[in-house]
């Protein structure tokens, strides 16, 4: 069977670089083309991933017959234009979350994909994490009884760049960090959110034009209550990028998932000193 | 060791004999769970205090506790303890719904008061306790133990030293199974439910750390079968400073679930986190013991009772006066009201929430 020909549309989102990496090792798909509206980024990605077909014109990429599907990893506000054109050209779409920055753009993407008969998937990567998948299985088995409440956090650092630009990101921490756990809550409860109450505080980074901390309280149609802390409240020197944490309260038990809890600690300087010591065959004093 | 008795002496004439003993006489009213695990061990360690009496409804249990902690007397009627001249202070550890009656009576008898949290379930009961203490010139402190909890005090100190810059967002949880050591917890009219009984710890602490709360939004559920009060509540708090906080109080965990507490304070220059589960420096499970904790310093209850004793001895305002506890109660009641009505509640509260 022919490998699926994939194109990455824009390296604006850091996940684009991850997608390019994982595609290298995939037997059934191949990264054959890339597009970016930033010339320097296009050149860098082309060299780094050894992709010959590097387009600075989106239409040319879409006309490439070897491209079966696109992965859209642009700034949030540009998802719609790239996705709609891709659908019109009959290309399948994997789009980075959030689907768009407003509901009418989201509706347009969905309608276009349906009419054109292309697959449309939004990159809710947390549905593929072994721990969160196991949670879904456990809930399905009824081990905690009916779910009554879920506390969730998706903390992060400030991602920088266009994430601080409301016209490109569509918002700040709320836009960036609500949807992953909101999606998990919908998935786990098989219910839809029917009411939201939220508050935002004073920014941790006063120079930002978007909110960097906020708290959200939800109520679902089936009566489950939930909370989400979507804040970019981790400082730049925090040891990990952030967290995806859920405490699920059932009538007969509970599940806690801390999907990215760090369980390996590497203290780089000590490791480097160890290499140096091996090389020199003698003890090495710190700091290096 | 001779101790100053200024605070006690100012209002309660002591005989020469008692004066030379130099000890504050203590009666513990309501010698149940919290008294036995926290207050009585603390009083018995304090040199400046002497345990005069314990009061419990069951005579056999009152006698047992009195013997175990070396109290001179035991009673089933708290008025008998209040009438003893050698009692200078009373430590009230009875169920919340009895606080007003006992505390007001203690004030009328001229006894200084340390009162378990929450101060009361109704604002008018809190007011009655506060004004009785004022009228009769006795000290009143409410036992909000987090203000003495070594890790929480350390976080407070770090924040006040400016180590995280300006505090912008905090999270605080308390997660456990339903308390099973007394029968009144499941009923809102008796305990206030999880947010008023347990959430008030974090609410009071966050007020101490971040200032006054101006608006509250909460959602709650009855998770465990048969519970009458809310046993799960989450609260979004807005402070006068514009900063925000999340509080979660949960009694819905299965029996045996170890008390889990978490505190995260984020400022514009840093973050500080205390998590009693993943940072435990000591975990033990054995015959009758199941404990996991982070012993940073001395026992919080000892420090709490000692702070009250010192306020009495030195005739100073105790560190958590009634007014502070009333404000924390007000925030907890606003959360309960919000959870019931499904809308944000602005402070101050204009009416009672628990009837």
Describe the structure.
- The complex is a heterodimer of chains A (288) and B (355).
- With 288 residues, chain A is of the alpha/beta class.
- Chain A has ten helices and twelve strands.
- Chain A folds into two domains: 4-123, NAD(P)-binding Rossmann-like Domain (Rossmann fold, 3-Layer(aba) Sandwich), CATH 3.40.50; 126-258, 2-Layer Sandwich (Dihydrodipicolinate Reductase, domain 2).
- Chain A has helices at residues 15-24, 39-49, 58-63, 79-88, 103-116, 130-141, 166-169, 173-177, 179-189, 268-280, and strands at 4-9, 29-35, 53-55, 69-72, 92-95, 120-122, 147-153, 193-200, 214-220, 225-229, 245-250, 254-258.
- A six-stranded parallel sheet of chain A has the order 3-2-1-4-5-6, with helices on both faces.
- In chain A, β5 (92-95), α5 (103-116) and β6 form a beta-alpha-beta unit.
- In chain A, α4 (79-88) runs parallel beside α5.
- Chain A is globular.
- Chain B has two domains: 6-144 and 302-320, Rossmann fold (3-Layer(aba) Sandwich), CATH 3.40.50; 147-298 and 329-346, Dihydrodipicolinate Reductase, domain 2.
- Chain B has helices at residues 6-9, 16-21, 33-45, 59-69, 78-82, 99-108, 123-135, 150-160, 188-191, 193-210, 300-313, 322-341; strands at residues 24-29, 49-55, 73-75, 89-92, 112-116, 140-143, 167-175, 213-221, 232-239, 244-250, 260-267, 270-275, 282-286, 289-293, 345-346.
- Residues 1-20 of chain B have low confidence and may be disordered.
- Classes of the chains: A alpha/beta (288), B alpha/beta (355).
- At the A-B interface, β7, β8, β9, β10 and β11 of A face β7, β8, β9, β10 and β11 of B.
